[in-house]
User: Which sequence fits this backbone?
């Protein structure tokens, strides 16, 4: 989980830097979040991250431009700002989950199970 917290922290740092919101969003996503797979995230974050990823890849690229650049270029300033807020919200949630003493693991059903820390395998 620490890897993902670090990736989201770096993305939020890129969003907080100077430049146009669209440039900062592209940098934050391409350099820090693009390689994260939804299945690697806690259940509580999967849908939000999937929605963000869909937004960042919604436009088919042309003329050698990547999907992320093309998608962000087509966004309004408000849409880009909403994506940036999603990254911040995801960072807040993954940080909160990383700081908790319990892990939320998927369960073969529609519910989540809280597992005590001593039962969670660590790397």
Assistant:
């Amino acid at each position: 989980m620490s890897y993902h917290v670090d990736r989201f922290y770096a993305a939020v740092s890129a969003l907080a830097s100077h430049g146009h919101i669209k440039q900062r969003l592209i940098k934050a996503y391409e350099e820090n979040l693009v390689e994260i797979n939804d299945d690697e995230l806690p259940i509580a974050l999967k849908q939000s991250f999937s929605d963000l990823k869909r937004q960042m890849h919604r436009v088919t690229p042309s003329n050698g431009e990547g999907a992320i650049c093309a998608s962000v270029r087509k966004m309004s300033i408000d849409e880009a700002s909403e994506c940036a807020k999603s990254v911040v919200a995801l960072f807040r949630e993954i940080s909160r989950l990383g700081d908790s003493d319990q892990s939320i693991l998927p369960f073969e059903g529609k519910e989540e199970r809280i597992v005590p820390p001593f039962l969670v395998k660590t790397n």
